[in-house]
Amino acid sequence: MLISYLPFSAATGADTPDLPWVTDAFAVVLGATVLSAGVLGDLFGRPRMALLGLVLTVAGAALDVVAGTTATLRLLWTGQAVAGVGGGMVMSATLVLIPARPRAIPLWAVVAGLGGRPRPRAGDWTCPARSSPR
Questions:
Q1: pLDDT at residue 58, rounded to an integer
Q2: Above 50 in pLDDT, residue 113?
Q3: Which residues contact 112 (CB under 8 A, 6 or more apart)?
């Protein structure tokens, strides 16, 4: 989303203080959700929370695509927040579901870290007014 700041700002008329919330909405909500999603996973089942988290992440990404094509800033914030809730649910559920082996948790951390790399670039592809070369 970082590359799309200027074209998206021009398309929506967003001010400079509004733009960091495009990426921060995901991170803040993800951090706030991880702990409470762990408690919900204990109550309702971790596999169920992981599946619900995946569904919410996809729903948030779909809202981001709609926001990118319609140039709606508040819808983009909402999509990022919904994806953050889903990501927090997935993160808390999958860490508990992996087996307690010496290599399992470092492998989980590497996969989680690599999984976040395509996200900013994928967000740029949803913005029709992008200015970055492919």
A1: 93
A2: yes
A3: 91
Residue 13 has pLDDT above 70, yes or no: yes
Supply the Cα-derived Rg of the chain in whole angstroms.
16
CA distances 119 to 10, 23, 126, Å, are 22, 10, 11
How far is Cα of residue 81 from the mean position of the Cα atoms in its chain?
A: 7
Using the 8-state DSSP alphabet, how is residue 100 labeled? -
Question: What is the C-alpha to C-alpha distance for residues 50 and 92, in angstroms, rounded to an integer?
Answer: 8
63 contacts 82 by C-beta, under 8 angstroms: yes
Residues 6+ apart with CB under 8 A from 42: none
* Spatial contact of 3 and 130, defined as CB atoms under 8 Å apart: yes
